Amino acid sequence: MAPVVYPTTNLTATEQMCLERGEGIYVFDDKGNKYIEGLAGLWCTSLGYDNKEVIAAITDQLNTLPFSHTFGGKTHQPLIDLAEKLAAMVPVDDAYIFFGNSGSDANDSHYKMLRYYFNAIGKPEKRKIITRERGYHGVTVAAGSLTSLPANLAHFDAPVEALSILRTDAPHYYTGRKGNETEAQFVDRILQNLEDQILAEDPDTIAAMIMEPITGASGVIVPPEGYYEKLQALLRKHGILVWADEVITGFGRTGADFGCTTMGIKPDLMTFAKQLSSAYFPISASVIPGWMYKEMVAPSNEVGVFGHGYTYSGHPAACAAALKTLEIYERDNLFGHAAEVGDYLQAELRRIFTDHPLVGEVRGKGLIAALELVSNKTTGATIAGGKGGAVAVKACQDNGVILRAVAGNALAFCPPLIITKPEIDDMLTRVKTALDTSYESLKAEGLL
Ligand code: PMP
Question: In this structure, which CATH number among 3.30.1380.10, 3.40.640.10, 3.30.530.20, 3.40.630.30 belongs to the domain 54-331?
Answer without folding.
Answer: 3.40.640.10
